[in-house]
Amino acid sequence: MTDTSERRRQPRHRYQVGLTFQYEGQFHRAEGLDLNLDGIGFHSGLDIPNKTQVQLFLTLPAGERVATVGVWGTIRWHLEVMPGVYRYGVTFEELNVDQRGAIGGYLADEKLHDFS
C-alpha cells in the first residue's frame, strides 16, 4: 500500500454507507469507509488490481432524501485487511458540476466529522 496521507488534498469524511460498483460487467456491493471530493475508500470481498477503472454508485443521504450519484474512479491501491476482505483507495475521474455538487453537499452536512 502507498502512503497517501502526504499527498491527500482534501480531508476525509466518514462514509459508512453501502455502495455499488461495476467491475468486469458485473455489479457488486461494498461497504463505504471514507469519502472526499477526490475519491473514496471502501471494503469489498473482490481482489481487484490497482489501476483498474470502476464505475461507482454512491448513496448520499440528505435529510429525508437519498441521492444516488454515479462516478468513475481508478483503484490506486488495495490491501487485504483479513482473508478475503480488501480495502481500496479509489481516485475519482473528473467530476461534473452535478456530481461535485451532490458529493460536496453531502460532505458539508454538519453531522459529519473529518478524521484526516
Structure, explained:
The structure is a single chain. The protein is mainly β and 116 residues long. It has one domain: Thrombin, subunit H. Helices cover 10% and strands 52% of the residues. The protein is built from 1 helix and 7 strands, in the order βββββββα. Strands 2-3-4-7-6-5 form a 6-stranded antiparallel β-barrel. The longest helix has 12 residues. The two termini are 17 Å apart. The N terminus is likely disordered.
Could you list the spans in which at least 5 consecutive residues all have pLDDT below 50? 1-6
Mean pLDDT, to the nearest integer, reads: 87
How many helices?
Answer: 1
Strand residues, percent: over 45%
Number of domains: 1
Topology as a string of helices (H) and strands (E): EEEEEEEH
Shape: globular
Biggest beta sheet summary: 6 strands, antiparallel, barrel
- What is the oligomer described by this structure? single chain
Q: State the strand order across the main sheet.
A: 2-3-4-7-6-5
Number of strands: 7
CATH top level class name: Mainly Beta
Rg over CA atoms, rounded to whole Å, is 13 Å
Give the class from helix and strand content and strand pairing.
mainly beta
The CATH architecture designation is: Beta Barrel
What name does the CATH topology carry? Answer: Thrombin, subunit H
Distance between the termini: 17 Å
